[in-house]
Amino acid sequence: MKVVSEIAASVAHEVRNPLTSVRGFIQLLSDPGLNESKRKEFSAITLEELDRAEAIISDYLSLAKPQIERLEPIELDQALSKSAQILSSYANMQNVEIVTDLKVHATVYGSTSKFRQAIINIGKNAIEAMPDGGKLTMTYTVNEPNKTVTISIADTGIGMNEEQLNRLGAPYYTTKDKGTGLGTMVLFSVIRGMNGKIEVRSKEGVGTAYFITLPLTQPESQASANLV
Fold it and tell me: Are the CB atoms for 185 and 197 separated by under 8 Å?
């Protein structure tokens, strides 16, 4: 109950911040003497803050939902390729090159939309960790004997120290000025729901790499449930 109370209070606090900004800018927009340039600038900031509030609520709802109940096949090469495509425009704006190596076919099981969002979340964080540009690499390797696949998403950004790395995934812990930490919590939740695990390695000034290991086969109990 204590953890739930803390999360609820944090969500309320995080949502209130952008809404307070929106209220202020709406008041400024009502000024008849405001020039067109400032009006456009304030309108853009208002929309950006509303989007931030929506993202916070969406991430919280993703955490509040039950774990994935129905696992569907996900073609890994297609899912990662689509995620890279979605990230490409943001990467171009930040002078970041996205490199992919998705030649091997592999199928994992989970929610396609949630998995893609988890990958996009990692990619977006990686891009933001390279303020001066850099390279984002997305690839995976298949381990046939163990029936697993390991996805690697690595950047050449600012990296994290040991303390930051150890706290990664904790409720509302973030290394970003405007972050909430919810996105990382959702990421860990999604991968756990796919019966997978995450390892993160990072070094300051060198970059960060996420290693996501997922099973290639669907659990028998889950497969049986899907046939019902």
Answer: no
CB 194 within 8 A of CB 86: no
Angstrom distance (rounded) from CA 102 to CA 56: 32
Model pTM score = 0.67
CB environment 88-126: b (16+ within 10 A), e (fewer): eeebeeeebebebebeeebebbbbeebbbbbbbbbbbbb
Contact, 184 vs 174, CB < 8 A? Answer: yes
Q: Which is more confident, 205 or 165?
A: 205
pLDDT of residue 227: 39
Residue 191: CB atoms within 10 Å:
21
> What residue ranges in 32-94 does DSSP mark as E strands?
72-75
- Is residue 135 classed exposed, middle or buried when 0-12, 13-18 and 19+ CB atoms within 10 A define those classes? middle
